Amino acid sequence: MPKRLLILTYYWPPAGGSGVQRWLKFAKYLREFGWEPVIYTPQNPEVAMVDETLSADIPHGVEVLKRSIFEPYRLFRLFTRQKGKMGVGFTSDEGSVKGIFGRLALWVRANLFIPDARMFWVKPSIRFLTKYLKQHPVDAVVSTGPPHSMHLIALGLKQKLGIKWIADFRDPWTNIDYFSDLPLTARALKKHRKFEQDVLINADEVVVVGSQMQEEFEQTSGRKVRVITNGFDEADFPEQSAEPDQYFTFTHVGTIPPNRNCEFFWQAMGSLISSNEAFASKLRIQLVGTVDKSVRDQLEKYGLTDYCTFFGYVDHATSVQLMQRSQVLLLLVNNTPNAKGILTGKVFEYLAAKRPILAIGPLGGDVDNLLKETRAGVIANFSNYTDILTKLTWLWGEYEQGFPSLQSIDATTYSRQNLAGRLVEILDNLS
Q1: Is 312 left (phi over 0), alpha (psi -120 to 50) or beta?
Q2: What is the DSSP letter of 85?
């Protein structure tokens, strides 16, 4: 008889985006290793994008528990006059939040909704799940954050029922890139750090997605932290991959918020267009996902707008096709103090697409180490214009010769199926 794993996740299909895929893919493969997933997720979440195609990966007949959630984002948008969903890291087509009401709403969001705006779901979820688990026991529970309110639900269940618990961090908590942009009071910051420590200390296992985050959490908590990176699902990447197009196409898949935008990169692109007629005739830039206004302004500034195609959000299957047909895959790492520890799920899908990767980020970080390990691409320092221009020039030369330096990448270590097996090793050792 399979063991049962309760997964507490805010993001679940039909929600789209990277936050969904980690635990959707784990759930897809858990049965192969003798574990039956049970999902707990909101009935009416505030999500920035929808991707109905991801529902095909939900295991047949899996139990999905859904409960209504109250979130104050409608009031936040009313004050800030934002019409759409809140973007990741405050990305906006119109620029940053402005005006006295906008600043007030942001202050309220930062200091009263701790750890996040899903805090109102914590106590009702603990009550509901305590009753559910007494009638339908499970062998372990996993909480995945952000939002970190999911961890507080699991903490409550741990305290009430003594259940085995894995806290999974897809991103840091108090060290996340946009945390320093929030107008936090000393009291609010203290409360965030207390909640973070409560989770880190009380969870039976803590899992993170990269080695830098592992080191940070081990230093702050004094406990062992495990790494299971994000990955790619081999089933999403057909063996007969699409042929790359004839142009020198750069494709970026995912959100570009202000702190992920690198003006030096666009400046270097503009310089090469001006100085190299062949480069200008072949260049194409594809931006797939939400793009901040600062990006569009700089594209205009450096004469790149006419070279760009803005796709907006597309379903996952379409993004895979765009990756496989691109000549170069662009990875922009957030220019923030914790940049060395940022290792997004997107980079693993880039590996699976088997196209050259150009990363713009910090040298010596998790992304740099991964690219060296897999020989899948190069990284340029986001603070060094000359380095970026040099790497772009090198890639242009490689493109003209058919990328002779591109290695045949075997990245199966990072397949979702293999990573699920690593997760199960941790689960099996809990009991």
Answers
A1: left
A2: P
Query: How many domains does the chain fold into?
Result: 2
With a CB cutoff of 8 Å and minimum separation 6, the contacts of 306 are none
Q: Rounded CA gap, 300 and 304, in Å?
A: 6
Helices 186-202/99-112 angle, 10° precision? 40
C-alpha span between 344 and 190 (Å, rounded)? 28
Q: Are residues 238 and 328 in the same domain?
A: yes
Q: Are 403 and 377 in contact (CB under 8 A)?
A: no
277 plus 363 within the same structural domain: yes
Bridge partner list, 145: 169
Positive or negative CA dihedral for 220, 10, 179, 71?
A: negative
Q: What is the pLDDT of residues 251-289, one digit of tens each?
A: 999 999 999 999 999 999 999 999 999 999 999 999 999
SS3 content of the chain, % helix, strand, coil (to 5): 50, 15, 35
Q: pLDDT band at 321, cuts 50/70/90?
A: very high
Q: Which two tokens stand for residue 431?
A: 């009991």
Asked if residue 313 and residue 213 are part of one domain, the reply reads no
Q: Which two tokens stand for residue 158?
A: 């741990």
Cα–Cα distance between 287 and 99 in angstroms, integer?
30
pLDDT at 90: 39
Q: Is the pLDDT of residue 326 over 50?
A: yes
* pLDDT tens, residue by residue, 77-135: 555 555 545 444 433 444 445 566 667 777 888 888 899 989 999 999 999 999 999 99
Domain containing residue 199: 3-72+113-231+416-428
Give the residue carrying structure tokens 């528990």.
65
Which pair of tokens denotes residue 18?
Answer: 């990277």
Amino acid occupying residue 366: D
| Residue corresponding to tokens 């789209």 | 16
Note whether 244 and 276 are same-domain residues: yes
Positive or negative torsion for Cα 147, 148, 152, 157: positive
> Which residues neighbour 414 within 8 Å (Cβ) at sequence distance 6 or greater?
229, 230, 231, 232, 348, 351
pTM of the shown model: 0.86
Q: How confident is the model at residue 24 (pLDDT cuts 50, 70, 90)?
A: very high
Q: Is the pLDDT of residue 199 over 60?
A: yes
pLDDT digits (tens, 9 = 90+) for 171-193: 999 888 777 778 889 999 999 99
Domain contains 135: yes
